[in-house]
Amino acid sequence: MKRRYLILFSLSGLVLCCDQLSKHLVRTLYSVGDKKALLPPLIDMFYARNNGFAFGLLQRAPSTLQEVFFVGVPAFAMILIILIFIKLQDNQMLTSIALTTILGGAVGNLLDRLHFGYVVDFISIHFGSYRLPPFNIADASIIAGVLLMFVSQLTQEKTSVTA
Protein backbone atom coordinates (compact mmCIF):
# COMPACT_ATOMS: atom_id res chain seq x y z
CA MET A 1 0.00 0.00 0.00
CA LYS A 2 1.34 3.41 -0.92
CA ARG A 3 2.43 5.65 1.90
CA ARG A 4 0.00 8.41 0.99
CA TYR A 5 -2.95 6.02 1.28
CA LEU A 6 -1.81 5.18 4.79
CA ILE A 7 -1.74 8.91 5.47
CA LEU A 8 -5.24 9.30 4.04
CA PHE A 9 -6.76 6.59 6.19
CA SER A 10 -4.82 7.21 9.40
CA LEU A 11 -4.91 11.02 9.51
CA SER A 12 -8.54 11.23 8.37
CA GLY A 13 -9.42 8.58 10.95
CA LEU A 14 -7.54 10.45 13.68
CA VAL A 15 -9.29 13.73 12.85
CA LEU A 16 -12.66 11.97 12.74
CA CYS A 17 -12.10 10.18 16.07
CA CYS A 18 -10.92 13.34 17.87
CA ASP A 19 -13.82 15.30 16.43
CA GLN A 20 -16.51 12.76 17.30
CA LEU A 21 -15.09 12.05 20.77
CA SER A 22 -14.91 15.76 21.64
CA LYS A 23 -18.47 16.34 20.40
CA HIS A 24 -19.71 13.33 22.36
CA LEU A 25 -18.09 14.66 25.54
CA VAL A 26 -19.61 18.09 25.02
CA ARG A 27 -23.10 16.64 24.36
CA THR A 28 -22.79 14.39 27.41
CA LEU A 29 -21.27 16.78 29.94
CA TYR A 30 -22.85 20.11 29.01
CA SER A 31 -26.19 21.66 28.12
CA VAL A 32 -26.67 23.80 25.03
CA GLY A 33 -25.54 27.35 25.85
CA ASP A 34 -23.14 26.32 28.63
CA LYS A 35 -19.97 28.36 28.67
CA LYS A 36 -16.69 27.60 30.41
CA ALA A 37 -13.35 29.42 30.18
CA LEU A 38 -10.65 27.23 28.67
CA LEU A 39 -7.78 29.66 28.10
CA PRO A 40 -8.95 32.99 29.51
CA PRO A 41 -9.34 35.56 28.11
CA LEU A 42 -8.96 34.12 24.59
CA ILE A 43 -10.76 30.74 24.34
CA ASP A 44 -14.01 29.50 25.86
CA MET A 45 -15.93 26.28 25.59
CA PHE A 46 -19.40 27.27 24.44
CA TYR A 47 -21.82 24.48 23.49
CA ALA A 48 -23.90 25.44 20.45
CA ARG A 49 -25.92 23.50 17.91
CA ASN A 50 -25.23 24.76 14.42
CA ASN A 51 -28.20 24.24 12.12
CA GLY A 52 -26.50 26.32 9.43
CA PHE A 53 -23.37 25.92 7.39
CA ALA A 54 -19.85 26.86 8.50
CA PHE A 55 -19.94 29.56 11.18
CA GLY A 56 -23.76 29.54 11.20
CA LEU A 57 -24.31 30.50 7.55
CA LEU A 58 -27.60 29.50 5.86
CA GLN A 59 -29.45 28.95 9.15
CA ARG A 60 -32.44 30.87 7.79
CA ALA A 61 -32.45 29.25 4.32
CA PRO A 62 -35.44 27.07 3.30
CA SER A 63 -35.17 23.51 4.66
CA THR A 64 -35.09 21.95 1.17
CA LEU A 65 -32.10 24.06 0.20
CA GLN A 66 -30.42 23.25 3.52
CA GLU A 67 -30.88 19.49 3.04
CA VAL A 68 -29.43 19.54 -0.48
CA PHE A 69 -26.62 21.84 0.55
CA PHE A 70 -25.69 20.18 3.84
CA VAL A 71 -25.60 16.62 2.54
CA GLY A 72 -24.92 17.10 -1.17
CA VAL A 73 -22.04 19.52 -0.95
CA PRO A 74 -20.02 17.53 1.63
CA ALA A 75 -20.66 14.27 -0.23
CA PHE A 76 -19.53 15.86 -3.51
CA ALA A 77 -16.50 17.40 -1.79
CA MET A 78 -15.48 14.05 -0.28
CA ILE A 79 -15.68 12.34 -3.67
CA LEU A 80 -13.71 15.17 -5.26
CA ILE A 81 -11.05 15.02 -2.54
CA ILE A 82 -10.61 11.28 -3.00
CA LEU A 83 -10.36 11.67 -6.80
CA ILE A 84 -7.75 14.42 -6.44
CA PHE A 85 -5.89 12.36 -3.84
CA ILE A 86 -5.67 9.39 -6.23
CA LYS A 87 -4.09 11.61 -8.92
CA LEU A 88 -1.41 13.07 -6.63
CA GLN A 89 2.24 12.22 -7.12
CA ASP A 90 4.16 10.56 -4.28
CA ASN A 91 6.21 13.75 -3.70
CA GLN A 92 3.10 15.85 -2.98
CA MET A 93 2.96 14.98 0.71
CA LEU A 94 1.84 18.40 1.95
CA THR A 95 -1.12 18.34 -0.44
CA SER A 96 -1.91 14.78 0.69
CA ILE A 97 -1.91 15.83 4.33
CA ALA A 98 -4.05 18.87 3.54
CA LEU A 99 -6.63 16.77 1.71
CA THR A 100 -6.80 14.20 4.49
CA THR A 101 -7.43 16.82 7.17
CA ILE A 102 -10.17 18.38 5.04
CA LEU A 103 -11.69 14.94 4.41
CA GLY A 104 -11.64 13.96 8.10
CA GLY A 105 -13.31 17.24 9.07
CA ALA A 106 -15.93 16.99 6.32
CA VAL A 107 -16.86 13.45 7.37
CA GLY A 108 -17.08 14.50 11.04
CA ASN A 109 -19.50 17.32 10.34
CA LEU A 110 -21.50 15.26 7.85
CA LEU A 111 -21.96 12.51 10.44
CA ASP A 112 -23.31 15.08 12.92
CA ARG A 113 -25.68 16.49 10.36
CA LEU A 114 -26.98 13.05 9.32
CA HIS A 115 -27.27 11.74 12.89
CA PHE A 116 -28.54 14.80 14.78
CA GLY A 117 -29.69 17.25 12.11
CA TYR A 118 -27.16 19.82 13.36
CA VAL A 119 -23.42 20.12 14.00
CA VAL A 120 -22.07 20.37 17.55
CA ASP A 121 -19.86 23.45 17.96
CA PHE A 122 -18.03 24.22 21.17
CA ILE A 123 -14.83 26.24 20.68
CA SER A 124 -15.24 30.00 21.00
CA ILE A 125 -12.34 32.37 20.34
CA HIS A 126 -12.59 36.05 21.13
CA PHE A 127 -10.37 39.11 20.91
CA GLY A 128 -11.73 41.76 23.20
CA SER A 129 -15.31 42.38 22.08
CA TYR A 130 -14.83 40.56 18.74
CA ARG A 131 -15.97 36.94 18.88
CA LEU A 132 -15.65 34.25 16.21
CA PRO A 133 -18.71 32.04 15.85
CA PRO A 134 -18.30 28.74 17.77
CA PHE A 135 -16.65 25.92 15.85
CA ASN A 136 -15.38 22.39 16.42
CA ILE A 137 -12.37 20.17 15.70
CA ALA A 138 -13.74 19.21 12.28
CA ASP A 139 -14.02 22.90 11.32
CA ALA A 140 -10.50 23.59 12.58
CA SER A 141 -9.22 20.60 10.62
CA ILE A 142 -10.88 21.83 7.43
CA ILE A 143 -9.42 25.31 7.88
CA ALA A 144 -5.96 23.87 8.60
CA GLY A 145 -6.23 21.70 5.48
CA VAL A 146 -7.20 24.65 3.31
CA LEU A 147 -4.26 26.68 4.69
CA LEU A 148 -1.92 23.75 4.01
CA MET A 149 -3.25 23.59 0.44
CA PHE A 150 -2.38 27.27 -0.05
CA VAL A 151 1.11 26.72 1.36
CA SER A 152 1.53 23.63 -0.80
CA GLN A 153 0.50 25.50 -3.93
CA LEU A 154 2.75 28.46 -3.13
CA THR A 155 5.79 26.27 -2.50
CA GLN A 156 5.03 24.13 -5.55
CA GLU A 157 4.75 27.21 -7.77
CA LYS A 158 7.94 28.64 -6.30
CA THR A 159 9.92 25.45 -6.94
CA SER A 160 8.51 25.08 -10.48
CA VAL A 161 9.40 28.73 -11.30
CA THR A 162 12.97 28.38 -10.01
CA ALA A 163 13.53 24.98 -11.62
Topology of helices and strands:
Elements (H helix, E strand, L loop, with lengths): L2 H27 L5 E5 L3 E8 L12 H25 L5 H24 L2 E9 L2 E2 L5 H26 L1
Antiparallel strand pairs: 1-2, 2-3, 3-4
Structure description:
With 163 residues, the chain is of the alpha+beta class. Helix content is 63%, strand content 15%. It contains four helices and four strands. The protein has a four-stranded antiparallel sheet with strand order 1-2-3-4. A hairpin with a 3-residue loop joins strand 1 and strand 2 (43-50). Helix 1 runs parallel beside helix 3 (93-116) and helix 2 runs antiparallel to helix 3 (93-116). The longest helix is centred in the N-terminal third of the chain and has 27 residues, at 3-29. The chain is globular and about 45 Å long. The two termini are 31 Å apart. 26% of the residues are buried. The model has no long low-confidence stretch (mean pLDDT 85).
Mean pLDDT over the residues: 85
Tell how many strands the DSSP assignment holds. 4
Which oligomerization state do the chains in this entry correspond to?
single chain
| Largest beta-sheet details | 4 strands, antiparallel
Q: Which sequence of strands runs across the widest sheet?
A: 1-2-3-4
Shape: globular
Q: Which structural category do the helix and sheet elements fall into?
A: alpha+beta
Which residues sit in consecutive blocks of at least 5 with pLDDT less than 50? none
Fraction of helical residues: 55-70%
The first-to-last residue Cα distance is 31 Å
- Strand share of the residues? 5-15%
Radius of gyration: 17 Å
Give the topology string: H per helix, E per strand.
Answer: HEEHHEEH
